[in-house]
């Protein structure tokens, strides 16, 4: 295509009010593969992929149902280093077993332990990744009957087998003990999206309807889930944009509407909300072409240190 043809196409697109062709959801699986190959790791990760997807219909209105929240965010640990806004990857803050949290208490959950988009989001408003306060507000408005007595935290596990054989049955057990009738799952990093997609599939096959709220469209749809609310936002904002309670409420209501009305498995709804007028933020996340060799070496060294810390902590927590 010569310059004259390109100019004509741009002019025609403007006249038709077309969006740019590269204003599309980030291809996280490919971006992650290229990133780790660039760091020098030559064993590309294989993402979970299924053809068949379980589906359980909502048998009664949510205004008469017990709904819970499932997250991959980690409880803040004051002795585990920086986990605040803008903090870098902190392997020491990871957790490795399913945990429960009282939904009638306040919680400080952080996402400094995951590969979220740290350049384009502030990490200051936890409501963007932990929608419990908004879910409780909807309970008070009788949009749902009640929030379950506990929410559940699921570790970000690269081992799909461990997620399916250990973590998923544990989540199901706790849901049944708490009388949960439907679940909202909110992941953060790329692997978080896979983890909670696997949890959603397991719960659905066991009779509990689910909806995943996420930002990594390719990963969730590649795995295959019953219901997926996609927000085209930077990772870490699956529950809505920061400091915008109206948008967060709209996002959660949209997810609940999808939970209640989806006609079949693999139902994806894309939120109409946009992160920004420009889509340039999509080019920065784990983009090997935008990192100098010197910075890449530094990042690899940091990643290797993080892996060593995480491996040590994992063994310690498993033994205890």
Question: What features would you describe in this structure?
Answer:
This protein has 320 residues and is α/β, with parallel strands linked by helices. The protein has a domain at 62-270. The chain contains 8 helices and 10 strands. It has helices spanning 3-16, 28-39, 132-140, 160-177, 190-205, 217-223, 245-261, 293-319; strands spanning 66-71, 74-75, 99-102, 109-110, 146-147, 150-153, 182-186, 210-214, 227-230, 267-270. The strands form 2 sheets. Strands 1, 3, 5, 6, 7, 8, 9 and 10 form an 8-stranded mixed beta sheet that branches. A two-stranded antiparallel sheet has the order 2-4. β9 (227-230), α7 (245-261) and β10 form a beta-alpha-beta unit. α4 packs across α5. It is globular. The protein starts with a helix and ends with a helix.
Characteristics:
10 strands, 320 residues, two-stranded antiparallel sheet, Glycine/sarcosine/betaine reductase selenoprotein B, alpha/beta, eight-stranded mixed β-sheet
